Amino acid sequence: MVQLGNDWDSILADEFQKPYYKQLRAFLKEEYSSHKIYPHMNDIFNALKASSFENTRVVIIGQDPYHGEGQAHGMCFSVKKGVAPPPSLKNIFSELTTDVGFKPIGHGELTDWANQGVLLLNTVLTVREGCPNSHKGKGWEFFTDRVINELNRKTTPVVFLLWGANAKNKAKIITNPIHHKLETVHPSPLSAYGGFFGCKHFSRCNEILVSSGQQPINWQL
Length: 221
Known about the structure:
6 strands, alpha/beta, globular
């Protein structure tokens, strides 16, 4: 039984009993036993463990976990301290620098954001080593749709940062008019120059939070 250690446990309890999730669990059991899968199975739900439903004010939606050795740890775009930031994260830091004066400090662990109520959620929560999107279409999308549906019910404004096609596909779930959706291309080197650089999502996010009576996010790690 998955234990998240906060209010997500009661909110999502029935989701873990649904037929699709039981099939997903069986698939993952086979995958973890026969292939190198990221993140470690104990880290799959780290984003939800770090950002409770009650505390979530901002949601950054990624694609699927990093598929290289030692990178993924259950929070989208984040890598543990001591692991070199991948190209997409470097581009995020570059936009942060020009947007809000962020100063890179030599690591790419985004736990400080999560502790402030930023849910770092991938649309798919696991991946086979070296094979991006290898666990796409196996059931995770139903699970992350449920998470976003629940957040859509919140009565305080949430800011959703939707970067790239997979994240934008979740936009249709966010129907509550009190919430805000900021959309642009993925920060990958393949697309960042097509609109991610200069999007100013970090400062715009904080402006929205402040205007709704909430504390801004301190993006500096």
